[in-house]
Write a structure and sequence with these properties.
Shape: globular
Structural class: mainly beta
Number of helices: 1
Oligomer: single chain
Radius of gyration: 16 Å
Order of helices and strands: HEEEEEEEEEEEE
């Protein structure tokens, strides 16, 4: 089974291959209609890193891709958010391929919602999976190669996987009530 079919089999809310050769739209292949927008000229020599599955994807300090997740699994506009205190079905996964060539020393979104502090971030050689006040950080062993990064949130735990291996995890004593991904 191809990588694309494996991802689509899990019925993601969004799936961007980042394989466009022209235009400013990052097409959402999930069927939900959550397309992204390229800002600046995304260099074709690094995109696509590989097919992969995000609110902001940073290529350089001036070239990036933004995503507005506005549609639910049926492609309809929705008002609910991930992980609210009213939802027991709040699990989610954020996945990306990442090549750490960001020069800034600031906390930089890889695949994240900066406003609500949710997602995968990079800073000074560290990958951080933030969920509001909860976070997991892992120092990358080598900054000269691409990494497959997966952040997993479930009601009772969070995990950060690097290249298919569990890098760090943490148990949660309660649902994080203010996780928003808009």
């Amino acid at each position: 089974m191809s990588y694309t079919l494996k991802i689509l089999k899990d019925h993601p809310l969004s799936f961007w291959k980042l394989d466009e050769t022209f235009g400013d739209t990052a097409i959402d292949y999930s069927g939900c209609g959550n397309n992204g927008v390229y800002t600046g000229i995304c260099p074709n020599d690094i995109l696509p890193i590989t097919t992969g599955t995000a609110q902001s994807f940073k290529v350089t300090d001036t070239e990036y891709i933004t995503y507005n997740i506005i549609n639910d699994y049926t492609g309809s506009v929705y008002d609910d958010h991930f992980g609210t205190k009213y939802s027991s079905d709040a699990d989610f996964t954020i996945e990306a391929w990442f090549y750490p060539k960001i020069i800034s020393t600031n906390l930089t979104p890889i695949v994240a919602d900066m406003t609500n502090s949710v997602g995968l971030f990079y800073q000074n050689g560290n990958i951080t999976f933030k969920l509001d006040s909860e976070e997991l950080s892992y120092t990358l062993p080598d900054l000269d190669r691409a990494f497959h990064i997966v952040g997993v949130y479930s009601i009772d735990s969070v995990q950060l996987y690097i290249n298919g291996y569990l890098a760090i995890n943490k148990s949660l004593s309660s649902v994080i009530s203010n996780l928003l991904f808009v």
